[in-house]
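As the next step, I selected for study a record pairing a protein sequence with its backbone structure tokens, which the following lines show:
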Amino acid sequence: MRELNVVGLDVDGKSVICESAESGEKFLLIPDGRLHAALRGDRVGSSKFQREAEDSDVLRPRDIQSRIRAGASPEQVAEAAGVDLARVERFAHPVLLERSRAAELATAAHPVLADGPTVMTLLETVTTVLISRGLDPDDTNWDAWRNEDGRWTVQLSWKAGRSDNVAHFRFSPGSHGGTVTPFDDSAAELVDPNFHRPPLRAVAPVPAAIAAEAEPELPLEVPVPAPAQPEPQEQPAKPARARRRKPEVPAWEDVLLGVRSGTQP
């Protein structure tokens, strides 16, 4: 039997690097339940210890059922714990039946509105609304899970076109089927005809200067009509002026003799 010396931890921090004292050869030691038991002085060869060491690395049945009851699927629990799915399904089946039964009971409960519980059940109300929207009420899926406070959350899922929709309710078992309370807007729209979403904020108008920069104005040549010319008005006829006679120029001999030509003495 060769002696090994501990060198240190591996880069992952989970394995121990050992080295042979004689040859210097290195070994990788992976700690498990048996190593811890050997360090404590327990007997490693017993079959009972081997079973306990194997069970210490997996979830206990109680832990599996607690996670399933809280809403996880068997696939999610198996992947998170790194265990075989068959082991999880063996303990998850009773809890899945419990969840299915809780969802079925919730469909017979009465939605609680502002003025009290409705007469119609949750299933009747949802069926009426989906038909009014042109959807198939049978193409739905109901599920339920228990919260940390012990109350049940019920989920309704349906498809509208290409969109997947979900609505959540809080289910309180009681007499006459119990009650359900809408937990989100989608649930409130299904059971409360007076429910309205908050109005959207109005968009402020874009200033004219910014709008002009965003969309440059295209110059358009618009023909401008010529101003209308006033019709010529008839001017009143001016009275004809009397024609003046040119003064007669006396002949030369008349000037000398003081007599006008053509006049009788």
User: Anything to note?
Assistant: The beta strands are 4-9, 16-20, 26-29, 110-113, 116-117, 140-146, 152-160, 163-172, 179-182.
